[in-house]
Amino acid sequence: ILNVEQSPQSLHVQEGDSTNFTCSFPSSNFYALHWYRWETAKSPEALFVMTLNGDEKKKGRISATLNTKEGYSYLYIKGSQPEDSATYLCAARDNYGQNFVFGPGTRLSVLP
Amino acid sequence: SAVISQKPSRDICQRGTSLTIQCQVDSQVTMMFWYRQQPGQSLTLIATANQGSEATYESGFVIDKFPISRPNLTFSTLTVSNMSPEDSSIYLCSVVLVTSGLNTGELFFGEGSRLTVL
Known about the structure:
The complex is a heterodimer of chains A (112) and B (118). With 112 residues, chain A is mainly β. Helix content of chain A is 0%, strand content 55%. In chain A, the strands form two sheets. In chain A, strands 2, 4, 5, 9, 10 and 11 form a six-stranded mixed β-sheet that branches. The relative contact order of chain A is 0.35. Classes of the chains: A mainly beta (112), B mainly beta (118). The A-B interface holds A 4, 31-32, 34, 36, 41-44, 46, 49, 51, 89, 91, 93, 99-100, 102-105 and B 4, 9, 35, 40-45, 92, 102, 104, 106-112.
């Protein structure tokens, strides 16, 4: 059974600051790692899916990296804006069930 | 992507009652899932809704408590039966679609149904 962890649990940053947070997952039988952004009262929105060790993905000011050998992924936000305030979820999938196993999320608040 | 509509978006329910949540997708999808997120917890898979057969439940979830229907490839319902305050959660319907350029598939979600049980 996959166990996915995220840290920190919550984060407050000032507008304009850059920030990053971590997703940890078992490195054995890795299949894919997904990042989602979940704003209150909206659907979780897919940000990235990564499958290869060393993958780096970027969307605007947000980027993510993947290390499958040690079992972690970082999400970076450059120049945080208030509209970046959301819960950021990661989900890992392994080769067995390929179910999406979610971490508890990192709640980001960007203060103007 | 897919447009996934859920209703109700929120409800306040009395202990011991049951509530059915509906999920409508704008296209035919093979794999449809129901998740919940209890306060402070991870998004957790309840079951896979199978078209034309019984849902497949994850460990800790049973059909009597969370009956699921999937009459066709675009619609599903989840019922939360005999509710207690511990059932207060956000319930999310989701589907897996294979997006262009990827064969891994991606989860798309409805906006969720926020249930509060008094």
